[in-house]
């Protein structure tokens, strides 16, 4: 049900100058300008690339990578019906290179796509392309375990994500958002807090939702029914703030004027006619750090309730083959008839009969999917690498698979593959490097460099290393444990040749 009353309340403007109906910003900062970083509204991390349009790919506007067209299919809320999953499998086989990639925003990618119009037709037939103008900006992650594990304050967030998607597509000006602009809809568990979405909705009680901006508390509280409209309002205020300063920022965190944006949202929430928003003092706690997130994805048996089990299935290095997709489809067909995508490159299959749990786990494992937390492949990611990326110095997927298989054989059924995630990068751009503590395997002309972040700084475990040496170094580094330091977030590449869609 779409709560239009709340939507209208938030879209009434006390100040027309900051309306979402503003003229899109046309100001651009010259790439050669040395003063670009000092302009109000642009952060110190401003990239000169911002003087050109965001080239983030979509389902229709594909990026021409070294291995063909790269298409990204947005899945707002992460929920897929079986007909949609079958259509995606068909599209990958008939229109792409047969592989489907899971991204860090719970979206999907197809590679080798040479007929984007035909892809668009297939997606539209199953409801995955409701808007041609907004298809690249429908980046909405919903809490994947909502209603399954009992940790959230809301039993379901599906309707919130659906309403946010509808309101987003209904606002013409929001088509101007970057394809990287991210919304999250948490269930109150805090699982999505550390993603630092541009606009986040986090329930703090059963009847109150906090609006977060780049992981910071805005101080605005709304009832759940008003939360989607509040998120759209926040996105409109971002565009208005960006325009006032002549900036071209793609993300909220790139604004030096984040405090101004927060104040504008608070003012607007308080001035809306008949507003249901409660503008409170900002919490001192940083939602981006609360609660502490898991270092590695959860796979295998997730929850049991009333004779039903939710299973978590990992995609090796974020990629699914047609056989693996069909195995997931069969499992879901025998369960709830739906799956949920997570930003940790796993697929949740809810509603599996308790007595069939072991059978399906065995079947999924036989297809090469990750169903054991201790697997070295769990928490392992890689950039596109060769042959997909012309900038890569190595076939990182091949080398990562060999190294992880070596670690699996050496462990010989061990129960602990280490707590830290590991990421293979084909060049110094480090596309897709995850946030937080991570082991990095970086390709160079002379081999791989293995490093990790520790409390004392960055530790180097191997240099100019071959496959076996890398595998052993990664095994040791992953056992170091969580760090209090955060490495860089990776290169923000608008070509997006990696399945690690956005950790930025």
From TrEMBL:
The keyword Signal does not apply. InterPro entries: Cbl_synth_CobG-like, NIR_SIR_4Fe-4S, NiRdtase/SiRdtase_haem-b_fer, Nit/Sulf_reduc_fer-like_dom_sf, NO2/SO3_Rdtase_4Fe4S_sf. Keywords: 4Fe-4S, Heme, Iron, Iron-sulfur, Metal-binding, Oxidoreductase. Residues 66-115, 307-365 form the Nitrite/Sulfite reductase ferredoxin-like domain. Residues 475-504 are annotated as: Disordered. GO terms for molecular function: 4 iron, 4 sulfur cluster binding; metal ion binding; oxidoreductase activity. Pfam families: NIR_SIR_ferr (PF03460). The keyword Heme applies. Residues 494-504 have a biased composition (Acidic residues). This is Precorrin-3B synthase. It comes from Actinopolyspora mzabensis. The lineage of its organism: Bacteria, Bacillati, Actinomycetota, Actinomycetes, Actinopolysporales.
């Amino acid at each position: 049900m779409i709560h239009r009353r709340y939507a209208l309340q938030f879209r009434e403007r006390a100040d027309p100058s900051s309306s979402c109906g503003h003229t899109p910003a046309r100001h651009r900062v010259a790439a050669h300008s040395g003063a670009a970083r000092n302009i109000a509204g642009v952060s110190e991390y401003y990239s000169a690339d911002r003087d050109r349009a965001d080239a983030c790919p979509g389902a229709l506007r594909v990026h021409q990578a070294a291995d063909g067209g790269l298409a990204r299919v947005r899945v707002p809320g992460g929920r897929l019906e079986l007909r949609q999953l079958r259509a995606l499998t068909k599209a990958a086989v008939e229109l792409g290179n047969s592989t489907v990639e899971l991204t860090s925003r719970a979206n999907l990618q197809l590679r080798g796509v040479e007929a984007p119009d035909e892809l668009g037709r297939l997606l539209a037939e199953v409801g995955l392309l409701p808007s041609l103008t907004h298809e690249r900006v429908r980046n909405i992650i919903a809490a994947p375990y909502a209603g399954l594990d009992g940790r959230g304050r809301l039993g379901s967030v599906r309707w919130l994500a659906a309403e946010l998607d509808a309101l987003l597509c209904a606002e013409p000006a929001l088509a101007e958002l970057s394809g990287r602009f991210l919304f999250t809809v948490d269930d109150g568990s805090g699982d999505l807090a550390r993603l630092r979405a541009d606009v986040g909705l986090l329930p703090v009680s059963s009847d109150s939702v906090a609006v977060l901006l780049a992981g910071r508390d805005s101080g605005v509280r709304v009832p759940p029914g008003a939360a989607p409209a509040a998120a759209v309002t926040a996105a409109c205020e971002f565009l208005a703030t960006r325009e006032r300063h002549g900036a071209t920022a793609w993300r909220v965190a790139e604004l030096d004027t984040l405090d101004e944006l927060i104040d504008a949202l608070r003012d607007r929430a308080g001035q809306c006619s008949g507003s249901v928003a409660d503008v409170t003092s900002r919490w001192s706690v940083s939602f981006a750090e609360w609660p502490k997130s898991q270092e590695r994805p959860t796979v295998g048996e997730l929850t049991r309730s009333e004779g039903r089990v939710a299973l978590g299935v990992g995609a090796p290095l974020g990629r699914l083959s047609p056989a693996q997709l069909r195995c997931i489809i069969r499992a879901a067909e025998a369960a709830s008839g739906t799956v949920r995508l997570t930003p940790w490159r796993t697929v949740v299959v809810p509603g599996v009969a308790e007595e069939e749990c072991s059978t399906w786990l065995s079947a999924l494992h036989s297809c090469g999917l990750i169903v054991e937390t201790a697997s070295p492949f769990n928490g392992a990611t890689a950039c596109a690498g060769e042959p997909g990326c012309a900038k890569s110095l190595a076939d990182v997927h091949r080398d990562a698979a060999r190294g992880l298989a070596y670690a699996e054989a050496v462990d010989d059924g061990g129960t602990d593959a280490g707590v830290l995630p590991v990421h293979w990068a084909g060049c110094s751009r480090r596309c897709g490097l995850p946030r937080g503590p991570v082991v990095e395997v970086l390709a160079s002309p002379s081999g791989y460099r293995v490093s990790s972040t520790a409390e004392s700084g960055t530790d180097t475990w191997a240099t100019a290393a071959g496959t076996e040496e890398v595998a052993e170094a990664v095994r040791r580094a992953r056992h170091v444990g969580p760090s209090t330091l955060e490495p860089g977030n990776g290169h923000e590449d608008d070509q997006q040749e990696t399945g690690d869609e956005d950790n930025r």
